[in-house]
Write a structure and sequence with these properties.
Layout lengths: L5 E2 L16 H24 L2 H20 L4 H44 L10 E7 L9 E3 L4 E3 L4 E3 L4 E8 L3 E9 L2 E9 L9 E3 L3 H7 L11 E6 L6 E3 L2 E3 L1 H20 L4
Antiparallel strand pairs: 1-7, 2-6, 2-10, 3-7, 4-6, 5-6, 7-8, 9-10, 11-12
Length: 273
């Protein structure tokens, strides 16, 4: 045991299913997909040349029709293939411009949602791994793990010199939010660990430096630059969402539903895509 802290404060979305038995993660993905599908169609409408897209699609259809009508005339078929390629390129050029307006905000939205939907908190009583990577494999023996009340190690630390890592197997006695401390070279750094169920904002790793990697994979402050620890990693189990009789990674489900919603709203609003 060490000087870490624990808390049992629940997340606002603390249960996988609502009081009416609703699958909360699936409901969130469906709701967000509908909204994003609508917003992307509206953005496409006001940032694209709708008339030019309509003309490009009509020309592409005409060239495809020529292939069917004159399939026994080789010169016509060859010209049609060339024109199909050119018409497809023209259409893609027209359709690509609106993507420039949505790709950045959509990427950061996915990154933030993945903090909640990509992984599940560690279950109480279920062992999990805490990995610490140091910048010098010769200092692995200096690293130690300090656990708060409620967390216990179930095996001795494992040193992996080839990866410059120390690995501990830990188990939680009860749900809660904990801070584990890692000490090396008289310096101590903490890592947040969430135990329980439901939807919590999770950060699987705390990193030193690596700004862009932290943007995408870490939700915690960077480790100080002048310290021997490169990263502290907690292995959270991946979350699969039950929907339509299948188990989905939430990102795949989001893309499928948002595309379906986009085509639905495109037809309702009469927008050329």
């Amino acid at each position: 045991m060490g000087s870490g802290t624990s808390s049992s404060v629940a997340s606002p979305l603390s249960a996988p299913r609502g009081s009416l038995g609703v699958n909360v993660p699936a409901a969130i993905v469906v709701g967000i997909s509908l909204v994003i599908g609508l917003l992307m169609v509206v953005v496409f409408r006001y940032t694209s040349d709708q008339k030019a897209i309509h003309v490009a699609k009509d020309r592409l259809k005409a060239h495809l029709l020529a292939l069917r009508l004159f399939q026994d005339q080789i010169p016509v078929v060859l010209r049609s293939y060339v024109r199909i390629v050119l018409a497809t390129g023209r259409y893609l050029r027209l359709a690509f411009k609106p993507l420039l307006f949505v790709i950045v905000p959509l990427t950061f939205l996915i990154v933030q949602l993945d903090r909640y939907l990509g992984s599940m908190p560690v279950a109480a009583g279920q062992p999990f791994l805490v990995k610490v990577r140091l910048d010098n494999p010769n200092t692995l023996n200096e690293a130690s793990l300090q656990l708060p009340d409620g967390l216990l190690t179930t095996a001795s630390a494992v040193h992996v010199p080839s990866e410059s890592e120390v690995v501990w197997r830990v188990v939680a006695e009860k749900p809660g939010e904990y801070k584990v401390n890692v000490q090396s070279a008289d310096q101590t750094f903490s890592k947040r660990v969430v135990v329980g169920a439901g939807l919590s904002r999770l950060s699987p790793v705390r990193l030193r430096g690596k700004f862009w990697e932290r943007i995408f994979v870490s939700g915690e402050p960077a480790l100080p630059k002048n310290n021997p620890i490169e990263s502290i990693d907690v292995q959270y189990p991946a979350r699969n969402i039950a929907f339509a009789g299948f188990e989905w990674n939430w990102i795949w489900l989001f893309f499928v539903l948002s595309l379906a919603a986009g085509f639905l709203f495109k037809s309702i609003l009469g927008i050329e895509i």
